[in-house]
Amino acid sequence: MEGVNEKENEEVEAQKHSGPSELGKWAEIQDMLKKRVITEDDFPWRLPSSQAQHQQLRYVGGVDVCFSKEEPSMACGSLVVLDLHHALRLVHQCYTVLTLDVPYVPGFLAFREAPILVHLLEKMKSTASPFYPQVLMVDGNGLLHPRGFGLASHLGVLANLPTIGIGKNLHHVDGLTRSGVKELFEAEENRTKDLITLRGSSGFIWGVAMRSTQSSLKPLFVSIGHRISLDTAIKVVKMTCKFRVPEPIRQADIRSREHLHKHQIGRTYWWQYVGQISCSEVPDFVRSYLVQHFIRFSKLFQKLSTLRRETQTQY
Fold first, then answer.
1. Is residue 309 within a helix (H) or strand (E), and if so which, with residue range?
2. What span, in angstroms and rounded, lies between the C-alpha atoms of 62 and 255?
3. CA-to-CA distance for 141 and 151, rounded, in angstroms?
4. What ranges does the record give for the region Disordered, renumbered to this chain (predicted)?
């Protein structure tokens, strides 16, 4: 009953945050896009090997969206690309910070986060970057989802990219539960295994629960996103794990939080600076313009303030 209760709770939460008509539209879109998911290898590259006649996998991307604790609607999307041929060296990073008006609805996360990530991918593609990812890891599930179409699959279809879903928590689906997976990992015959196949009551294989490192106490949940087989997805994840979370996802998470923190510091400073400007110093319409365009001018005023402090120190 554990999985059934969670599904009912998700449906209740969904109704709280979005009207039935909106959820119906989202469900229709999911069903339409789901038909386009490819669950086998559909790319020109091969995994790194000694055979040089094939194009090899080199650039692995990772995406993440983090949110401000102080302003829950403020989000930072990040895209990083690592080079497999050079010990997972970071070769590309880009970010976008924006305010979201789409609520989080369980089961429909992609409608909140996918547009941000698609924007970052399109921005990178428009520059003809040589580091555009050959495969993308997504901080979210793929097929391992109550509707069989999580963020990783949604983003993969929209961007037409091979994607891998990396979940830190298990969606209760088709008889699979957290407690059940925990029991499987703790079973005597499985204690030395690094992964367990997640086969539902229907017999369908939703993904795998993986111990990414020997020291990992909690498993990751790996599933097909789009244009990749589960077997290849598992191999790519293993190639990119230094810690529990695969490095592309870990770096995207760390850097998105750092970028959002810097953005908030700059924003706070800007509001303080503008707030100190008296009406006698600038006309109201100029003050209003500054407030509306604080992001554009925040860095400039930080530099001016630094120069002013240095000048005051000299004299």
1. helix 294-314
2. 11
3. 6
4. 1-24
pLDDT tens-digit series, residues 152-182 = 999 999 999 999 999 999 989 999 999 998 8
For residues 167 and 237, is the Cβ–Cβ distance under 8 A?
A: no
Look up the pTM and report it. Answer: 0.80
Question: Maximum CA pair distance of the chain?
Answer: 78
**Rounded-to-integer distance, Cα 98 and Cα 94, Å:** 14
Give 223's strand partners. 165
How far is Cα 188 from Cα 308, in angstroms, rounded to an integer? 68
2.60.120.620, 3.20.20.140, 3.40.50.150, 3.30.2170.10: CATH of 2-249: 3.30.2170.10
In 10 A of CB 191, how many CB atoms? 8
| Element containing residue 63 per DSSP (H, E) | strand 59-67
DSSP letters spanning 132-154:
--SEEEESS-SSSSTTS--HHHH
Q: Encoding tokens for residue 5?
A: 């209760």
Look at residue 27 and give its three-state secondary structure.
helix
Residue 249 CA: distances (Å) to CA of 64, 90, 123, 158, 210: 7, 12, 19, 19, 15
Q: What is the DSSP letter of 190?
A: G
What is the per-residue pLDDT across 84-138, written as a single tens digit (0 to 9) for each? Answer: 999 999 999 999 999 998 988 999 999 999 999 999 999 999 999 999 999 999 9
Sheet order of strands, 163-167 included: 89-99, 74-83, 59-67, 135-138, 163-167, 220-226, 205-210, 195-199
Q: List where CATH 3.30.2170.10 sits in the chain.
A: 2-249
Pair 80, 250: CB distance under 8 Å: no
In whole angstroms, what is the distance from residue 164 CA to residue 148 CA?
14
Closest by CA position to 165, among listed 210, 132, 106, 202: 210
**Rounded-to-integer distance, Cα 188 and Cα 177, Å:** 19
